[in-house]
């Protein structure tokens, strides 16, 4: 599924580099001894007949400090035209020196929040999300708490990258989002469809009824994931004021068609979510939880497995730093 994100975004990114990256401006600013990028730009230089001026390329791979960068480096092609650098740390904050980055690419990451909104786990708050593990289908106070945290995190991300990008540098964002259910309200969440995280929550509830999980543990757990609406994201970018929006569109993810089997879908979400679940509930519950989840997908909610019923989208944004 993640490969589907990369495949659908790659040709658009290549076109964006070709049409929107002004090499002559960067050269005139004396910034081209080395090119700190997130994708190779060699073809751009060749197409503009600047082969003699091709700089050294550096690709910086960012992930959390717990990521296995050794596995990443072993998977890179030996015959490559760039130097690879591991950059551990949270992308919600600064990672690089000022004005050192020429091209940034965030792939299917910005729907992850820096933290669960504090209010949704507070029993004294109107936004307490008792009995649920996500905001989809929850009360409006819960949705608002998630939306507020998302806006804060995106703003922090944009500000950090604005300090790191050179003037005229490009940034591509590809993140998971949803289309509003109402044309009149661009912030209407999907409350009428079963979501896969809600199904995981129902599995936890079933386990609690049998004494396998504490209800209090469920009440204090929420997934730190928010699916943005395109107009919502656009408003945050405009409000930041550090970028021009060169291109913004919604894309279909062809990778979702690879997960039409309940066991494959359960394995995919286990790989993504298991760490969070183990940190909160312990490792003893995960086998039973995802066995139950696969069963519910197959029996209770088979419609979820049909790709045409997947309401998620990819939001593609091309930004140029002012």
UniProtKB/TrEMBL annotation:
* Molecular function, one GO term: metal ion binding
Is Zinc-finger among this UniProt entry's keywords?
no
Entry keyword annotation includes Chloroplast: no
Record Gene3D superfamilies: Methyltransferase, alpha-helical capping domain, Vaccinia Virus protein VP39
The processes (GO biological process) annotated in the record are:
methylation
Signal sequence bounds: none
Q: List the keywords (alphabetical).
A: Magnesium, Metal-binding, Methyltransferase, Transferase
- Family (UniProt): Belongs to the methyltransferase superfamily. Type-7 methyltransferase family.
Q: What is the designated name of this protein? A: Loganic acid O-methyltransferase
């Amino acid at each position: 599924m993640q490969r589907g994100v990369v495949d659908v975004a790659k040709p658009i990114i290549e076109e964006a580099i070709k049409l929107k990256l002004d090499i002559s401006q960067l050269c005139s600013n004396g910034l081209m001894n080395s090119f700190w990028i997130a994708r190779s730009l060699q073809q751009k230089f060749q197409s503009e007949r600047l082969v003699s001026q091709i700089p050294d390329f550096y690709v910086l791979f960012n992930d959390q400090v717990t990521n296995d960068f050794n596995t990443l480096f072993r998977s890179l092609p030996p015959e490559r035209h760039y130097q690879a650098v591991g950059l551990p740390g949270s992308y919600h904050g600064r990672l690089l020196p000022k004005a050192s980055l020429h091209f940034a690419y965030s792939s299917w990451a910005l729907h992850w929040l820096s933290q669960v909104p504090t209010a949704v786990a507070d029993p004294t708050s109107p936004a307490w999300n008792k009995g649920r593990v996500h905001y989809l289908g929850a009360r409006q106070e819960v949705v608002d708490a998630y939306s507020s945290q998302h806006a804060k995190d995106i703003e922090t991300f944009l500000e950090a990258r604005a300090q790191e990008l050179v003037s005229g540098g490009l940034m591509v964002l590809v993140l998971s989002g949803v289309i509003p259910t109402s044309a009149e309200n661009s912030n209407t969440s999907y409350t009428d469809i079963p979501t896969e995280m809600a199904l995981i929550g129902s599995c936890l509830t079933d386990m609690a009824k049998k004494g396998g999980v504490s209800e209090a543990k469920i009440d204090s757990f929420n997934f730190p994931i928010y699916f943005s609406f395109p107009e919502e994201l656009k408003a945050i970018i405009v409000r930041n004021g550090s970028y021009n929006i060169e291109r913004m569109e919604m894309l279909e993810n062809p990778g979702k068609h690879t997960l039409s089997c309940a066991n494959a879908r359960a394995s995919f979400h286990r790989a993504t979510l298991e760490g969070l679940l183990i940190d909160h509930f312990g490792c003893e519950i995960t086998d039973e939880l995802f066995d139950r989840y696969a069963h519910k997908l197959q029996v209770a909610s088979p419609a979820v497995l049909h790709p045409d019923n997947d309401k998620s989208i990819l939001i593609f944004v091309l930004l140029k730093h002012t």
